[in-house]
Amino acid sequence: MINLLPSEIKEARRYGRRNQTIVGYSLGVIVIGVLTVSITFFNMRYLASDEKRLRDEMQQRDAQTAKLEAGQKDVEKIATQLKTIDKLNSGEVKFSELIPKIGSLLPNGVVLNALTLTGGKTSPLQLDVDMDSQNLVAIFQQNLVNSDLFEAADIAAITSKGAGAAKPGVKSYAYGATLTVSFKGAAANKKLAAPKASTP
User: pTM of this prediction?
Assistant: First the structure.
């Protein structure tokens, strides 16, 4: 069949078909772009909500961990005090022997004022002493740690007593101090108590 249409019409039809193809491609690109933007927006919203959920879970876990750590410290405190009481009740440590042993550890210029079983929150024994110089408390602390009776000694407070009114025949001391000490074996007892604290 011979195409007798003028060349102008032929050219117009050819470009018309090309324009239709280009329009189809353009619509396809637009649709793909819209889908891409929609998917991206959906993913961003999903990630934002998921991030909030994960952050809330982490905060809850941190709160649970803090509670467990607090519980563990309480168990360690009670276990240490029970260990001390057990030592005293079993006769392993007697007050009649304890005071002379502590007295032998006192450096010159330091006197023992009081001894309390339930002293600090984490140590079972509290010692109150008076001294001529505040530097002597460090020597006393070292003597306690180096002894075969205690494994730890911490200085809780050092106070100045001031001049005050001197009593006849009674020696006055310029400083006072409080120390908390732990008997030998208290640390091992804490380690045994730790797994119990972590059990829900």
Answer: 0.47
Residue 130, pLDDT score: 93
Q: In the 8-state DSSP scheme, what is residue 62?
A: H
CA dihedral 70, 75, 80, 85 (to 10 degrees): 140
Q: So what CATH class is 85-194?
A: alpha beta
Cβ–Cβ < 8 Å for 103, 143: no
DSSP annotation of 93 = S
Q: Is the pLDDT of residue 188 over 50?
A: no
Q: What are the residue boundaries of the structural domains of the chain, listed by start?
A: 85-194
What is the percent of the chain with per-residue pLDDT over 70, rounded to a whole number? 66
Task: Compute the distance between CA of residue 139 and CA of residue 58 in angstroms, rounded to an integer.
Answer: 47
Dihedral angle sign, alpha carbons of residues 185, 111, 176, 131 = negative
At residue 102, does pLDDT exceed 80? yes
Two tokens at 116? Answer: 């309390």
Going across the sheet that includes 175-183, the strands are 110-116, 125-131, 175-183, 150-160
What value does the mean pLDDT of the chain take? 75
d(CA 126, CA 148): 18
Q: What is the CA radius of gyration of the chain?
A: 41
Q: How far apart are CA 110 and CA 159, in angstroms?
A: 14
